Amino acid sequence: MTSDGCGEEKTNCNDIRGKRVASMNNNLTTQNGIGNGKSDMSCINNDNKFSIESDEDAIASNDDSFDPTDGEKEVDLEAGGYQGQKPGDIRELNESFDELLEKYKSFKRACDESRMNLANRVVSSIMEILDKFNVSHNLRGPFLEGYNTHEDRKQAFDALRKEILDLFDSENVFENLFFPGGRKIHLEHQTNLRDAFNRKYPNHNHSNRVVTMDTIKGLVYKGQIGRAAKSMSQTESPVVNPDNFSNKIINLSKKELEIIQKKDVASSKLSEVAFQPYEELDEFNFIGPDTADVSRIVSKMFNGTAKGPSGFSNKILKSFCANRDPKGLELVTYLVNFILRGWVSDKDWDLINTTRGISLDKGNFKNDANDWRPICISEPLMSIADRYFKEGTFTILTKAAGCQDGLQLGLSSNGLHIGNKYLQGLFDLQSLCDSLKNICYLKVDVKNAFNSIFKQTIKQVLTDLDLPYPNYWNRLYSKDSKVIINSADDDDIEELLMNRGTHQGRPSSSLIFDAVIMEWMRKNDLIDANFSESFTLSFRSAHDDMLIHGTPAEIVSFYNKLIIAFNKAGLELNKSKTKILHNKSMEDSHWKILEKFAMPFVKTAVDSGDTDGPILTRDGLIFGGLPFGTDSFINQMLYDKFKDWESDVAMMMEKGTIDNRDPGLTLAFCRFSLSARWGYWLRAIPKRLWSGKVKVKVGDNMVEEKVDILELIDSTIWKYFLRDLDIDRTRGFELSKYEENIAKCIFNLKLNNGGLGVQSVVEIADSALVGSWTCFVDDVFKQLYKIMNVNESDGEDRILKLGILQNISIIQDIKTTAGDLKNYLYVDNEYKMCDHQSHSILVDGACPVSEMLDILCNSAGFDTDNSDPGKLIKFRGNKFMKYQKKLTHLKNVISRDHLSDSLLLQHNDKPFNNEDGNFKSYALNNDIYRSFQDRSKFSQKFLNRIHMSYNKRTLNLRDTKKILAHTLLISFKSPTLHCCKHCNATDVSYWEHLEQCKYIYGTLQKNNGEIEVKLGSRSQELHKAIKRCCCFHFDTIADATRRGFHEPSANTFDLDPNHRSFKPGDSTGPDSRADILLNALGDSGKHEDFLIDVTVYSSHVKSNINCHFEFHKNNKYFRWVNAGVAKKAWTSKQTHYSRWLHDNHIIPFAFDSAGNIAPGTLKFINKLFAPSNSNYGRTWNSENERKILKNWFLNKLSMILAKQRVTDLNKALAISLLEREENRRKFKLQKKNKKANAIRQRGGNVVNVN
Fold it and tell me: Residue 705: what are its φ and ψ, rounded to 5°?
């Protein structure tokens, strides 16, 4: 139904944008999330305690937070009557910082207002200049066209550029943007904040922070779970203070510059390099970012990252760009365009290109003073420009880096896994092919590569590549850049000049480094010329780690050429980290060459005291973090990796005490960090290599033991969570073995399948290996075919070579694993009494899972003499089918089905007799089975909020433990049937009675002087909570308005004349009321009124139990109905309102007590949160914002229902009201008697002092 005048009212886009921006600036839609739609994750701990780091931020933002939607109204140049006036003439846009500070009494608010005034003045002036030269405001239209000659056009261009530079100089744009009150005032403000913090925490060490539990909670509450997990496994901050930072950053002396000159590098001194930043053709055809591009990039920037040298942070930038006044975003867009164009003065360039240097511990800094990594923190504006530059040059640079040729593995998707499979395959082939047995592998490491390469080398290569945006990268690598470093005590600041290398930490740095290195090697004839002459010589790179394989003579020749080429580029190889792998059957002549070549590296390692394994080895190497070599080498490497991980977990378990360890945080660590951390290795290494004999340290000795690493990982994670869940104390008695087995199964199920979402590495190992193989099998077989010359062979020779390839371990592992998966997925259960989730994924799709497994079982996707070429082509053409996700899903569904069958047949008091038993009655009375089966994706969404602060999750620590235990089917009542101490009912179903007993929610009242229980209901407070949640979140929806604060009447719509009339006392009378009146865009494309009526049905009451089942005629089989009770609630409300002609505009918001939502309700919510490009045309600020708001709403609804389940449990476990009143009366009487006795003992009389 269309509401009169509402469409016109909602066309005010400023109100819509303002409403949403207000929520964003109040941390409602912060981008710092995990998993799917992570709401509230930017907020720090709202409890009374603060972490030191959180409190430091709190002091820094102690001013009233700036909300652009209230307080002083923004200056509207049109509505305010300022048409025709220049921004410089408008008083409100030219207030000084001191005036703003006096006006708002807040340093932060004054800064925000000053920046926005600057944006209004500058953007308006830029637009005037562009209009003067007939250039479009987005700089993307015809650029300076319409001039008769090229000379005229160039003169116009020079004039335009000069006016822009003059404007920036007069307004001092960058300086005033970073320091609205001036550098001196900002420095004083920062000093005052630091002094205030030091007074509050006098013993705090800024340079080496101790990681406490409060620190961890602060990070998790901000959504930085990965960072929190790393901090949990540390006792101190990873930031270190090395003495040789300047050496790492590379500050060249005059002597070093003279050495560069002698080496005939392009130019010796950067300040003397001819710097010509402008190219006419580039300027006339330049396409820079528009506001949509900048908004997209800004939305992906995290609030919690470190500030730039000026103190201008991502948080400030995001708030500035998200302001209701679009001038903020427009100014940033112009600035980024001018940075990329080179329209920035030298003074401004020095300001924005200055970085802040910090040093990160690489893991062994305590033992090795050189084991650290220098990182440069850039200004957010430069990060945006660099990100856009990376996007525009990505294709050219990745091609130059050798990604398409398989040479650079670190930049391409699955590159490191492809390289690992190729190297393992080649290692296996050496024992099968005599022509390959003399191949050895040389692994080299470039010392401080990113910071050492000459900028002249970078500039020369980028020039030869004809890279876009030359005005940006030419200036970036032609001028020195400043690096500001704080000393250990944070008082002194040191400024260094960086005239070598790239800025580690900027988006494009690694991409540029990889491309330059590879192109430089081509220029020095290291790659193409050598590789074309030999089929055994090849090269692989993972950024600054490089691996060369070939015969010893080829390796020696290549290495010597590499040394010369790298010296020209300012690079040096780290000899102490060089490793060489060779085959045990290598011929003597080749071995002598290799042994002689390796001697200098062995000597260097001995002299430096390096203990990182032998230089020469026959076992294997680790390249790109993945091992290849013998089975024992890989197995031992995995075990060592597990022991390191186990020590991290042990350190995490030491944090906190039993009274403050939060299982909500622990679950987040288990879900998103501890188990997920193993996916990288699971995709590369088969399951068989995760178990076997390894060397284990026992005391001072090393002994061999057989271990199953995957089982150990799962067991360690489960024990960590179970310890923090603290079941013994929470419920009062120990967990039985049967309960623990069921709980662990649920712990490893996905949320969609009713679990806690912690993946089992044992369960996903096979799926990860096979699924990843399907993504890159085509790339692996091309490289192996090349080394075996398969494509150049025919007849029996080709068949022989294909047969050899089928016998290498990587192929055999795939075939075996695919066979195991096929057997597991296709096997039928002994009994099938109910229909389970559909497994149609096995047979559906262009290349279904079943067909994929058949191909892998037969040939692992490689050509064989009896393979079907058509199927192989079809299989290889479907590398984006996401088989890993499908296989993981299938195995998890089957695990759920097995658990369901177990609960159905074994959890009742008596096992079911299939021959003469009444199965229908048996199934209907199985409360535990129904409780587990009646779970959905929505009912488990509350787990996405379980890691937040207690205020945001609305659960205290004890209730958090209870809801998690309840989800794991850990009962707080031992027998299935029990007696209720509230109403004295005997032999009742615990789950059913929990939702029906009105005494549980009763209250005490006096009646004729007697205390009695007034019966209550669980639904009232639950109804109010859901309604409040809906009201709050409806206000955040684009193009939707909640109208009125009273319950709307159904009489908003006309009665249906064909419907029967109302009878006296009819509960569905004409005065029926809904809960919320919402005006939103409907199917008609116009604004329409919708009535929202909230209802929640109990899942376990007898009248609703049948809703879950659809039995067959013989009652021997049934189909489970998902959300059956919620559907019944929806249907009941629909029937209730069927007497009105509302055309589906009265929407039941129907739920059940198990936490499910009716499909019709979810469908309406999806319409409210429809994308901007849908039929409803919602005007979201971004797609990311829409997803966050939607998931936030659904997660909170799920949490409200989960909290009600905990409340039910607490009420049921509490003593009865009458007993509680009796205990209170006895306590008061006991206290009174105790006081009287004390007085008598003193020999006094009992006196009423009142």
Answer: -140, 150
Q: Two tokens at 118?
A: 């600057």
If you ran DSSP here, which 8-state letter would residue 24 be given? H
Neighbour tally for 823: CB within 10 Å: 11
Give the residues across from 622 on adjacent strands.
627
In one-letter notation, the amino acid at residue 345 is S
Hey, how many other C-beta atoms are within 10 angstroms of the C-beta on 646?
13
Pick the closest to residue 474 from 266, 257, 274, 286 (CA basis): 274
Q: What is the pLDDT of residue 968?
A: 94
Residue with tokens 């393979």: 867
CA–CA separation, 1112 and 1117 (whole Å): 6
- In angstroms, the Cα distances linking 464 to 263, 287, 405, 751 are 21, 21, 20, 52
Amino acid at 833: M
Instruction: Give buried/exposed letters for 884-908 (b at 16+ CB in 10 A, else e).
Output: bebbbbbbbbbbbbebbbebbbebb
Furthest CA-CA distance within the chain: 119
Low-confidence residues of the chain: pLDDT under 50 = 1-75, 77-81, 243, 245-246, 250-254, 256-274, 365, 487-490, 828-838, 916, 975, 1246-1250
Half-sphere exposure of 371 (CA within 13 A, CB side): 11
**Rounded to whole angstroms, how far apart are CA atoms 951 and 955?**
7
> Residue 609's CB: how many other CB atoms inside 10 A?
8
Q: What are phi and psi of 616, to 5 degrees?
A: -100, 130
CA distance 168 to 162: 10
Neighbours of 707 (CB within 10 A): 18
Residue type, 188: E
Long-range contacts of 187-193 (CB under 8 A, 24+ apart): 189/107, 190/311, 193/59, 193/60
Closest CA to 327 of 186, 137, 172: 137
| Contact predicate 754/935, CB 8 Å | yes
Provide the CA 79 distance to its chain's centre, in angstroms.
Answer: 43
pLDDT at position 1243 is 61
Cα 278 to chain centroid, rounded: 40
Structure tokens at 419: 């390289």
Pairing, β 579-581 against β 616-617: parallel
Here the tokens at position 1045 are 């604060």
pLDDT of residue 1019: 80
User: How many other CB atoms sit within 10 Å of the CB of residue 1225?
Assistant: 11
Alpha-carbon dihedral sign for residues 954, 958, 959, 964: positive
What tokens appear for 1096 in the block?
Answer: 């929640």
Helix pair angle (225-232, 213-221), 10° resolution: 170
Q: Are 581 and 614 in contact, with CB atoms under 8 Å apart?
A: no
Burial of 35 (C-beta count, 10 Å sphere; 0-12/13-18/19+): middle
CA gap 92, 112 in Å, rounded: 14
Residue 507 in contact with residue 374, Cβ under 8 Å? no
Q: CA dist 219 to 44, 203, 298, 466, 1157, Å?
A: 8, 22, 21, 44, 32
Cβ pair 389, 340 in contact under 8 A: yes
pLDDT for res 681: 95
Q: Are 1246 and 1236 in contact (CB under 8 A)?
A: yes
Q: What angle do CA 35, 41, 45 make, to 5 degrees?
A: 140
Give the model confidence (pLDDT) of 646-693 as tens digits: 998 998 888 877 777 899 999 999 999 999 999 999 999 999 999 988
- Give the predicted TM-score (pTM) of the model: 0.84
Task: Dump strand ranges (E) for 1031-1172.
Answer: 1040-1042, 1076-1081, 1087-1097, 1109-1111, 1118-1120, 1146-1152
| CA separation, residue 437 to residues 319, 552, 581, 802 (Å) | 62, 11, 12, 18
